[in-house]
Protein backbone atom coordinates (compact mmCIF):
# COMPACT_ATOMS: atom_id res chain seq x y z
CA UNK A 1 0.00 0.00 0.00
CA UNK A 2 2.80 2.44 0.92
CA UNK A 3 4.56 1.81 -2.40
CA UNK A 4 1.31 2.40 -4.32
CA UNK A 5 1.06 5.91 -2.87
CA UNK A 6 4.48 6.66 -4.44
CA UNK A 7 5.34 9.10 -1.68
CA UNK A 8 3.58 10.64 1.28
CA UNK A 9 1.87 13.65 -0.31
CA UNK A 10 -1.51 11.88 -0.59
CA UNK A 11 -1.34 9.70 2.53
CA UNK A 12 -3.98 11.74 4.38
CA UNK A 13 -5.20 10.17 7.60
CA UNK A 14 -2.10 8.01 7.98
CA UNK A 15 -0.13 9.99 10.55
CA UNK A 16 3.09 9.34 8.59
CA UNK A 17 4.39 12.81 9.52
CA UNK A 18 4.80 11.57 13.12
CA UNK A 19 7.37 8.97 12.01
CA UNK A 20 11.10 9.45 12.17
CA UNK A 21 11.49 9.65 8.38
CA UNK A 22 9.25 8.29 5.63
CA UNK A 23 7.28 5.06 6.10
CA UNK A 24 9.23 1.96 5.05
CA UNK A 25 7.33 -0.96 3.42
CA UNK A 26 8.96 -3.69 5.51
CA UNK A 27 7.88 -5.69 8.55
CA UNK A 28 10.00 -3.43 10.77
CA UNK A 29 8.57 -0.36 9.04
CA UNK A 30 5.04 -1.62 9.68
CA UNK A 31 5.86 -2.21 13.35
CA UNK A 32 7.22 1.35 13.62
CA UNK A 33 4.08 2.70 11.95
CA UNK A 34 1.81 0.83 14.39
CA UNK A 35 3.87 1.97 17.37
CA UNK A 36 3.67 5.57 16.17
CA UNK A 37 -0.12 5.47 15.82
CA UNK A 38 -0.48 3.98 19.29
CA UNK A 39 1.80 6.61 20.84
CA UNK A 40 0.35 9.64 19.10
CA UNK A 41 -3.29 8.62 19.48
CA UNK A 42 -3.34 9.50 23.17
CA UNK A 43 -0.32 11.73 23.78
CA UNK A 44 -0.26 15.47 23.27
CA UNK A 45 3.36 15.66 22.22
CA UNK A 46 3.56 19.30 21.24
CA UNK A 47 0.39 21.04 22.39
CA UNK A 48 -1.29 20.79 18.97
CA UNK A 49 -2.56 17.20 18.90
CA UNK A 50 -5.78 15.81 20.31
CA UNK A 51 -6.75 12.26 21.32
CA UNK A 52 -7.45 10.26 18.18
CA UNK A 53 -7.84 6.84 16.61
CA UNK A 54 -6.08 5.62 13.47
CA UNK A 55 -7.65 3.03 11.17
CA UNK A 56 -6.27 1.18 8.19
CA UNK A 57 -8.87 0.68 5.47
CA UNK A 58 -9.11 -2.86 4.13
CA UNK A 59 -10.83 -4.09 0.98
CA UNK A 60 -12.73 -6.83 2.75
CA UNK A 61 -14.12 -9.82 0.98
CA UNK A 62 -14.33 -11.91 4.12
CA UNK A 63 -11.20 -13.85 3.24
CA UNK A 64 -7.96 -14.12 5.20
CA UNK A 65 -6.06 -11.88 2.78
CA UNK A 66 -7.98 -8.62 3.04
CA UNK A 67 -5.93 -6.04 1.19
CA UNK A 68 -5.02 -2.71 2.79
CA UNK A 69 -6.19 0.17 0.63
CA UNK A 70 -5.95 3.30 2.76
CA UNK A 71 -5.98 5.23 6.02
CA UNK A 72 -8.53 7.01 8.21
CA UNK A 73 -7.76 9.22 11.21
CA UNK A 74 -10.55 10.09 13.66
CA UNK A 75 -9.76 12.98 15.98
CA UNK A 76 -11.89 12.84 19.12
CA UNK A 77 -12.19 16.61 19.49
CA UNK A 78 -11.26 19.78 17.65
CA UNK A 79 -8.71 22.39 18.59
CA UNK A 80 -8.52 25.74 16.75
CA UNK A 81 -6.33 24.42 13.91
CA UNK A 82 -8.49 21.33 13.35
CA UNK A 83 -11.68 23.41 13.46
CA UNK A 84 -10.39 25.79 10.82
CA UNK A 85 -8.77 23.44 8.31
CA UNK A 86 -8.72 19.71 9.09
CA UNK A 87 -11.77 18.49 10.97
CA UNK A 88 -12.49 15.30 12.89
CA UNK A 89 -11.76 12.86 10.07
CA UNK A 90 -8.95 12.64 7.53
CA UNK A 91 -8.72 9.76 5.06
CA UNK A 92 -7.12 8.57 1.86
CA UNK A 93 -7.25 5.58 -0.49
CA UNK A 94 -4.21 4.42 -2.41
CA UNK A 95 -4.25 5.25 -6.14
CA UNK A 96 -4.87 1.73 -7.49
CA UNK A 97 -7.90 1.22 -5.21
CA UNK A 98 -9.72 4.50 -5.86
CA UNK A 99 -13.21 4.77 -7.35
CA UNK A 100 -14.26 1.46 -5.77
CA UNK A 101 -16.26 2.79 -2.82
CA UNK A 102 -13.56 2.30 -0.18
CA UNK A 103 -13.48 5.96 0.92
CA UNK A 104 -17.27 6.14 1.18
CA UNK A 105 -17.39 2.95 3.25
CA UNK A 106 -14.50 4.06 5.46
CA UNK A 107 -15.99 7.51 6.05
CA UNK A 108 -19.29 5.90 7.13
CA UNK A 109 -17.41 3.68 9.59
CA UNK A 110 -15.46 6.71 10.88
CA UNK A 111 -18.71 8.59 11.46
CA UNK A 112 -20.12 5.57 13.31
CA UNK A 113 -16.97 5.40 15.47
CA UNK A 114 -17.37 9.12 16.24
CA UNK A 115 -20.95 8.50 17.34
CA UNK A 116 -19.63 5.82 19.69
CA UNK A 117 -17.41 8.46 21.27
CA UNK A 118 -20.40 10.72 21.87
CA UNK A 119 -19.61 13.16 19.05
CA UNK A 120 -22.91 14.55 17.67
CA UNK A 121 -21.52 15.73 14.34
CA UNK A 122 -18.14 15.49 12.65
CA UNK A 123 -16.35 18.12 10.64
CA UNK A 124 -14.77 16.77 7.44
CA UNK A 125 -12.79 18.93 5.03
CA UNK A 126 -11.27 18.60 1.59
CA UNK A 127 -9.24 20.79 -0.73
CA UNK A 128 -11.40 23.06 -2.88
CA UNK A 129 -10.20 21.28 -6.03
CA UNK A 130 -10.65 17.71 -4.73
CA UNK A 131 -13.88 16.78 -6.49
CA UNK A 132 -13.66 13.08 -5.58
CA UNK A 133 -13.36 13.80 -1.87
CA UNK A 134 -16.15 16.37 -2.01
CA UNK A 135 -18.44 13.76 -3.59
CA UNK A 136 -17.42 11.19 -0.96
CA UNK A 137 -18.22 13.59 1.87
CA UNK A 138 -21.58 14.55 0.34
CA UNK A 139 -22.44 10.87 -0.23
CA UNK A 140 -21.68 10.34 3.46
CA UNK A 141 -24.24 12.95 4.50
CA UNK A 142 -21.92 15.94 4.57
CA UNK A 143 -23.68 19.28 4.74
CA UNK A 144 -21.62 22.13 3.26
CA UNK A 145 -20.75 24.81 5.81
CA UNK A 146 -18.18 27.11 4.20
CA UNK A 147 -14.74 27.48 2.63
CA UNK A 148 -11.70 28.45 4.69
CA UNK A 149 -7.99 28.37 3.94
CA UNK A 150 -8.52 26.56 0.62
CA UNK A 151 -10.68 23.88 2.25
CA UNK A 152 -14.35 23.07 1.86
CA UNK A 153 -15.89 22.33 5.27
CA UNK A 154 -18.77 19.89 5.79
CA UNK A 155 -20.62 18.68 8.89
CA UNK A 156 -21.96 15.12 9.07
CA UNK A 157 -24.48 14.27 11.80
CA UNK A 158 -23.51 11.02 13.53
CA UNK A 159 -27.09 9.99 14.32
CA UNK A 160 -28.30 9.21 10.79
TrEMBL record:
Gene3D superfamilies: 3.40.630.30
Molecular function per GO: acyltransferase activity, transferring groups other than amino-acyl groups
PROSITE patterns the UniProt entry points to: GNAT
CDD domains in the cross-refs: NAT_SF (cd04301)
Domain N-acetyltransferase: 1-160
InterPro entries to which the protein is assigned, alphabetical: Acyl_CoA_acyltransferase (IPR016181), GNAT_dom (IPR000182)
Keywords: Transferase
Domain of life of the native organism: Bacteria
A Pfam short name: Acetyltransf_3
Name of the protein in question: GNAT family N-acetyltransferase
Species this protein is from: Nocardioides albidus
Amino acid sequence: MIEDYAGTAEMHGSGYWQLDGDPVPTEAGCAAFVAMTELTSTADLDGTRVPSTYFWIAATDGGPDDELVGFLHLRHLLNVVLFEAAGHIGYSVRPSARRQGHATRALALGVRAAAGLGIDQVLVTCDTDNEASRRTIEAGGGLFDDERHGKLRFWIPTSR
